[in-house]
Automatic annotation (TrEMBL):
Keywords: DNA-binding, Transcription, Transcription regulation. PANTHER family: GNTR FAMILY REGULATORY PROTEIN, TRANSCRIPTIONAL REGULATOR, GNTR FAMILY. GO terms for molecular function: DNA binding; DNA-binding transcription factor activity. SUPFAM superfamilies: GntR ligand-binding domain-like, Winged helix' DNA-binding domain. InterPro entries: GntR_C, TF_FadR/GntR_C, Tscrpt_reg_HTH_GntR, WH-like_DNA-bd_sf, WH_DNA-bd_sf. This is FCD domain-containing protein. PROSITE patterns: HTH_GNTR (PS50949). CDD domains: WHTH_GntR (cd07377).
Amino acid sequence: MTEIGRVGAHDRVVGSLGMAIVNGDITPDEDLDVAALQERFSVSRTAVREALRVLAAKGLVGARPRRGTFVAPREHWALLDADVLRWRFADRVDETFLDELGEVRLTVEPAVARMAALRRTDRDLADLEDALAAMRTAVGRPAADHVEADLVFHHTLLRAAHNELMTQMATAIEAGLRLRDQFVHATLTSESTDKHAEVLLAVRKQRPKVAETAMRALVERSIADVDLAKKVHGEQAGR
């Protein structure tokens, strides 16, 4: 098999097997036989083993001596991994994930805004101004433009907090935030630059409590948008 063919086979096994695990078609603790997978996907043993290594890195599979490879318990899964998230949303809206993401954001992002108000530099402020301007420019454009502009604003605010551990924590939810934005903007016409502007104003004036309150209001509005989008999506699916 050529290098290109081998990589393609490996990716196909990763995608198919990962989606089957995440969607519950293959359940936790179920054994994964390499020979059976090789036959199922018509690929080499090497391609199967490489795919299993990728899935192991995402926490989806594990291995034990004498037993071999098996599907790992859900609590071991890297639930914020971009591929895992994509598989979760491949054929349905994962409402539980959206609800849990809202709870995490409500805990993390107001604290980020408070720290940014205390620690932001002039460069951080200029970058935030640019990010908000991009959000305003994206109004009325395709949903993808607004999604990207919104993510840039939140990522820029995160950098302005100057906390490496918080950066890693919040960066981990960025893939989830992207899916949330795509879902909401594909279902609703939602425009929230006013709330973002309130956060930016508090950060500019270095008023940490006001920034924290403004971000909490922004996230609460985001959660309300998700709830409304779920309702609309459900009504559309029932037609």
